[in-house]
């Protein structure tokens, strides 16, 4: 019958409701040792956020569709092998984290493309060999996590989503040519350029920028040899520092 998990009663569930930062209600049942979806929480479907992460769930029932107010659903770090088709009925869903499970491409429901208000989708650390092109219908997506899967390519319909700002595809077995294409696309479409005025730089950073700018001016005044183009591998800019502080995908 498998491992017996902790039984969640309605009283325990009610005591696990908190007020979220935006004033909504958050039902936090993370790290509870739950092995089966607690049916009692179907009496608490007015919550805005549901956190069932870091448990041992293998299945989410179709009754998840009863949580019509849900904006935030966190299922990461379970043992999920499939998702119900009814998840597509959560039309208010803004954030969906199903990272670190056992999901395969076959068991990823096509109904995910119905989540028209979804901004953040994390599918990292699963067993996905491909991504459905239908996810390109999610025009509001800003961030997608696809890291640590078995992907060899990313559909253009996903890469070219109009509002996409972050696409994490690290540690997938892409062919070399695909890797190069992905990196180029990431630089071109995702990174933000941060500018700083000289008065905001410390003396050391300002001196480096001025020295490199002087070198660049000298090189611009020279006629490069046709067989050898100048390299600016040591060029430092304020953006070099800013990139180190970008937010990482959380597990």
Automatic annotation (TrEMBL):
Domain Disease resistance R13L4/SHOC-2-like LRR as annotated: residue spans: 64-186
Record keywords: Leucine-rich repeat, Repeat
Pfam families noted in UniProt: LRR_14
InterPro entries noted in UniProt: Leu-rich_rpt (IPR001611), Leu-rich_rpt_typical-subtyp (IPR003591), LRR_dom_sf (IPR032675), LRR_domain-containing (IPR050216), LRR_R13L4/SHOC2-like (IPR055414)
Cellular component annotations (GO), alphabetically ordered: cytoplasm
Cleavable signal peptide: none
Regions annotated as coiled coil: none
PANTHER family cross-referenced by the UniProt entry: LEUCINE-RICH REPEAT-CONTAINING PROTEIN 18-LIKE (PTHR48051:SF42), PTHR48051
Name recorded for this polypeptide: Leucine-rich repeat-containing protein 18
